[in-house]
Design a protein that fits this description.
This protein is mainly β and 572 residues long. It has helices at residues 7-35, 356-363, 391-398, 416-428, 552-569; strands at residues 41-52, 75-80, 86-93, 122-128, 134-141, 149-152, 155-164, 182-186, 190-199, 205-213, 216-223, 230-239, 245-248, 255-257, 265-266, 276-278, 282-284, 289-301, 304-316, 321-329, 334-341, 368-369, 374-375, 378-385, 403-406, 432-436, 456-469, 476-477, 480-481, 487-499, 505-509, 515-520, 523-526. It starts with 6 loop residues before the first helix and ends with a helix.
């Protein structure tokens, strides 16, 4: 049976349902209004993400923009020092962009590369209202929990954050409006941030802060591995720079620079006595320029000092970090070695039967070669029989070579006029000389108590002795650094040096404390030759290999050749 409700009753029930639904809807809407009340007091927390340089990225060119800043590209130039050496200078902007693969992890870090602050670093944050009136200011210390700013929701605020060399210096007047606030005469690393945003009152607000470096930084690396150790860099200065700059909070895009610094900014190299040295970052306070210069008053590489090296026309943009690489080139050349014979102990460098392992060490491309520890093209090693040459012919022959090797040669064959030629060539400072000096008798070069090029030699007797190391000269080098705990084994006749020039350095001593070996800029003399031979069981290289590092004798031999090669490379 079909039941039909009265129309009136159906209408009534429907009306009641709609009334209840309407009431529920009104209550939910009212709740939403309460939840979304944006004008309540709320906290704005500072989320310090770190610091960043000015943006540089791929595909930019070194052109000046309308704002005066420079888009960045790698800059290269070649500076000729002399006929043997050049410097390849490369100025590279450090990219401010991280790998795009990180984008899914952190959308902000996928754009700008940041460096976190260290615990204890400080920065200040200043708050202005929508009319630019000063409201509040706090100094924050990274790593400590800090309360944020209590502000009113549904309002717009401008936040300014800054740090100067990771401190928060006090400003002279703190409560000036945004249009007048500034930091003045900042001469250290200035980092700055500004953002305007609306604060909502229905939740805690977070302000992400990345402090941007406003001054440039250049880290300079000098690579002289092709030429020798860098023992000194004097008065390295970058110009032009300003003494300081000021920044307006209202319009921070443009810095107001102080006067030009008369002395420029010094480039500091904390570690020397290495073939590659790197400066601490050099802060540059300067507007965009295409005429930056690095001037090095003097640099000593491989024992040779060169003066007034200038790298100019550097394009530098404020806030960008750069790496400036200076690489000494001109290293790949053939080093010519001349042995003086006849050698009475078969120790001629080119053909002597007892120097075979010494030659193996020199001819091993891992030691000396285009990609070796010491970069050269190769060696050309020859011997000459001095008996077949006049004094003038000997002089002409020496002029064709770089390193002159004199072992166990009779004085009767190195007659007075030829000895005079050798002495003259040592004093000309164009070639490098290596000689033995056992002097057991007066028969062999250089002889006992007979001056030679400012040196005087004598004998120290005969036997087998452990010769002591002085950690200086060729005992220190690219193949290893010998210490006082190391010794050099010498047998049979052993010599000593009784007098040497002021610029020469002892580096080995006999057991009685007398000087066994000395080195000057282009001269090395050691009081025995057996330490580099491979003949008797007591000889230093007997049973060895082509390695330059297997024992003290190997290290010393190869370090001497490193010293000799660096001297030749660095001669004008």
């Amino acid at each position: 049976m079909k039941i039909q409700l009265p129309i009136k009753n159906t209408f009534y029930k429907t009306s009641v349902f709609l009334l209840i639904f309407s009431s529920l809807t009104a209550c939910r809407s009212s709740d939403n209004v309460t939840d979304g009340n944006n004008n309540r007091q709320t906290v704005v927390k500072i989320n310090m993400l770190g610091t960043a340089a000015e943006s540089t990225g791929p595909g930019k060119t070194a052109a000046t923009t309308k704002t005066g800043s420079l888009n960045e590209a790698i800059q290269r130039q070649v500076i000729t020092i002399d006929k043997k050496q050049t410097i390849i200078a490369t100025l590279t902007p450090e990219s401010s962009f991280v790998n795009s693969a990180q984008a899914s992890v952190n959308s902000l870090s996928s754009v700008i590369k940041q460096e976190k602050l260290k615990a204890g670093n400080q920065y200040a944050v200043v708050v202005y209202d929508d009319k630019g009136n000063y409201l509040d200011e706090k100094t924050f210390t990274y790593g400590q929990q800090e309360s944020g700013f209590l502000l009113t929701g549904d309002k717009t605020y401008t936040f300014v954050a800054y740090s100067v060399d990771y401190t928060a210096p006090a400003r002279t007047v703190k409560d000036l409006p945004l249009s007048q606030a500034k930091l003045e005469n900042i001469s250290k690393d200035l980092m700055f941030f500004k953002r305007t945003m609306m604060v909502t009152g229905n939740r805690e607000n977070n302000l992400d802060v990345v402090l941007k470096h406003r001054y440039s930084q250049i880290t300079t690396k000098i690579d002289a591995s092709a030429a020798g150790n860098i023992t000194d860099v004097s008065n390295a200065v970058i110009t032009p720079v300003r003494t300081s700059a000021s920044i307006s909070f209202d319009k921070p895009e443009v810095l107001f620079y102080g006067p030009v610094s008369a002395n420029g900014t010094t480039v500091e190299f904390p570690n020397k006595n290495q073939s590659i040295i790197t400066s601490t970052p050099t802060l540059l306070i300067s507007d965009a320029t295409t005429s930056g210069e690095l001037n090095i008053k003097s640099i000593t590489v491989g024992g040779t000092t060169r003066n007034d090296i200038k790298i100019n026309n550097l394009k530098i943009t404020p806030g960008v970090r750069y790496g400036l690489d200076l690489k000494f080139d001109g290293a790949l050349k053939t080093i010519k070695v001349l042995g003086i014979t006849p050698d009475q102990w078969a120790a001629g460098i080119a053909t002597g039967s007892r120097t075979s392992l010494a030659r193996e060490k020199l001819n091993d491309k891992l030691n000396f070669g285009p990609n070796g520890k010491v970069r050269i093209e190769n060696f050309q090693i020859d011997d000459i029989d001095v008996r077949n040459f006049t004094a003038q012919q000997l002089a002409d022959e020496i002029d064709k070579y770089d390193i002159i090797w004199v072992g166990y040669v009779l004085n009767s064959q190195l007659t007075a006029d030829k000895r005079a030629v050798l002495e003259q060539k040592v004093q000309e400072k164009k070639k490098f000389f290596f000689i033995g000096n056992d002097n057991y008798s007066t028969a062999y070069f250089p002889g006992r108590n007979t001056p030679f090029a400012g040196f005087t030699f004598d004998t120290n007797g005969a036997g087998t002795r452990q010769i002591n190391v002085i950690p200086t000269g060729p005992t220190q080098g690219i193949f290893g650094n010998l210490t006082q705990n190391n010794t050099i084994r010498q047998i049979r006749a052993i010599g000593q040096v009784t007098n040497y020039p002021a610029n020469a350095t002892p580096f080995l001593t006999n057991p009685d404390g007398s000087i066994n070996a000395v080195a000057s800029d282009n001269f090395v003399s050691i009081g025995d030759i057996n330490w580099y031979l491979s003949y008797e069981s007591g000889d230093g290289l007997t049973g060895g290999t082509s390695s330059c590092t297997e024992n003290s004798e190997s290290i010393l031999l190869c370090n001497i050749f490193e010293k000799a090669i660096n001297y030749i490379k660095n001669q004008p």
